[in-house]
Design goal:
Length: 341
């Protein structure tokens, strides 16, 4: 480590800390420039930027992990790069080549190496890549210029309690429309989720669960995370829908459940009226990691799964396997780990 920083790693939550350097690249006249690291954490853009008025932007979230021997590694950054390309296509922005995306993440981690929390603290360095439409414009049309940035912040658990079960309620509002932008990681989906989230938190829940926007009968997402359930006969089940954000954690868990834990995996409808098919459920995502769901409030009644206080055995095994691979304690499937050198 090049420098020391005075951070109590064990007290970190999911909040912003200014780190030393961030990456910026500009798209102009049909191409991306080489990109560079900068100190300034403020950006100056036209007041008429499409990102500000028409939500022409997208972002990603991934983490750098410190391993037992002090190395640093990224978990499947190529998948984040590809998802960002899909998001860019959906809102008519130029794509970032996969190699450029990974290189930008590597540069940012290396430049802020001393902010990567030590192994064993449970904390990580969260990377936030983003693309925004900038430049002067006033009509509803794609921007003349784009900015691709990556910054990083050291983070602890997303939901208070970390790997302890938390309760959720069902949202009346939707985060996405049937043929809308739910599968893209664009800011508008998150703006629409602020109010139902706040209402859920005010009522004592960790967050809310979104149902399928067309029929309101099937589970889609758990706040900013995907949903999974474990059935009585030990199947790993997760919803299938075009309006869910395809979670890299969820697709990784599907592989781990099948190949490492010998489970049957199903991606299909998860009906609210059939919640009792599950003995354990959880929320999964880069920030949420695996957060066990204690109970879900449906029509004013709390449906409890394994327990409101204890983590279920299958959820625990999935968590240990996933986190073991991310922190370099367990060998992951080929190509999942990228060493930061
Ligand atoms: C709406 C939403 N769903 C699911 C996820 C989980 O995706 P991932 O596992 O790729 O972090 C996220 C976080 O990125 C999200 O914002």
């Amino acid at each position: 480590m090049s420098k020391n920083v005075s951070i109590d790693w064990s007290k970190l939550g999911f909040s912003y800390t200014k780190t030393d350097l961030r990456y910026i690249s500009m798209w102009k006249d049909g191409k991306w420039d080489a990109g560079k690291l900068v100190e300034d954490n403020m950006i100056s853009i036209s007041e008429s930027s499409t990102a500000l008025h028409y939500g022409q932007q997208c972002f990603e979230g991934l983490k750098a992990y410190r391993t037992p021997n002090g190395e640093i590694q990224l978990f499947r950054p190529d998948e984040n790069a590809k998802r960002m390309q899909r998001s860019c296509r959906r809102v008519l922005m130029p794509e970032i080549p996969v190699d450029k995306f990974i290189d930008a993440c590597m540069q940012v981690v290396k430049a802020n190496e001393h902010f990567v929390p030590p192994y064993g603290s449970g904390a990580t360095l969260y990377l936030r890549p983003y693309v925004i439409g900038v430049g002067h414009n006033i009509g509803v049309k794609p921007a003349p210029e784009y900015l691709f940035g990556v910054f990083c912040v050291p983070v602890g658990p997303y939901f208070k309690g970390g790997m302890a079960p938390v309760n959720f309620t069902i949202a009346d509002m939707d985060r996405a429309a049937p043929h809308g932008t739910g599968a893209a990681k664009v800011g508008g989906n998150y703006a629409g989720s602020l109010l139902p989230h706040e209402e859920a938190v005010k009522r004592g829940f960790a967050d809310c669960i979104y149902l399928d926007p067309a029929t309101h009968t099937k589970i889609e997402e758990v706040g900013a995370a995907n949903f999974f359930g474990i059935t009585k006969d030990n199947k790993f089940v997760t919803p299938a829908s075009p309006s869910i954000l395809p979670s890299i954690t969820k697709y990784s868990l599907m592989v781990l459940a099948e190949k490492y834990l010998g489970m049957t995996v199903e991606e299909r409808d998860c009906l609210v009226e059939k919640l009792d098919e599950f003995v354990e459920t959880g929320a999964c995502g880069t920030a949420a990691v695996i957060t066990p769901i204690g109970g879900i409030e449906v029509d004013g009644k709390l449906h409890v799964f394994h327990s409101e206080t204890e983590v279920g055995p299958v959820t625990k095994k999935l968590y240990d396997t996933l986190v073991g691979i991310q922190f370099g304690e367990i060998e992951g499937p080929e190509g999942w780990i990228y060493k930061v050198k």
